[in-house]
Amino acid sequence: QVQLVESGGGLVQPGGSLRLSCAASGSILSISPMAWYRQAAGKERVLVARFTSSGNTVYADSVKGRFTISRDNAKSTVYLQMNSLKPEDTAVYYCNAAVPIPAYWGQGTQVTVSS
């Protein structure tokens, strides 16, 4: 059974940085490209960054040049490095497969960007 646990969120000032982690149990990292999503209050969950099946990375236009997705297969962990954070990045961040599997949504980690 796959379990995804997100961590690393918090309160940060505009322009600051955070690194989110997604620890995966089970074999999902070896069978599916992974992705990060976010859901702001009152809005739908949207894709932020993902791996393709060939290992390339794809980013939402709103985070290009600021966010970086990476992974450590040995640790079964996917990361999201977030730099130059803006108030509009405030959201709950989730990881899941690049084609999300409903049963795998975790609790997410809250990121708040505010002065």
**Gap between N and C termini, in Å?**
40 Å
H/E element order:
EEEHEEEEEEE
Main sheet makeup: 6 strands, mixed
Number of separate helices: 1
Average the pLDDT over all residues and give the rounded result: 94
Low-pLDDT segments? none
Q: Report the helical percentage.
A: under 10%
Task: Write down the Rg.
Answer: 13 Å
Strand order of the largest sheet: 2-10-9-4-5-6
**Oligomer classification:** single chain
Which structural category fits the helices and strands? mainly beta
Number of strands: 10
Which shape, going by the Cα principal axes? globular
Please report which band the strand proportion falls in: under 5%, 5-15%, 15-25%, 25-35%, 35-45% or over 45%. Answer: over 45%
Characterize the structure shown.
- The protein has a six-stranded mixed sheet, with no helix packed on it.
- The termini are far apart.
- It is 3% helix and 48% strand.
- With 115 residues, it is mainly beta.
- The protein has one helix spanning 28-31; strands spanning 3-7, 10-12, 18-25, 34-39, 46-51, 57-59, 67-72, 77-82, 91-97, 109-113.
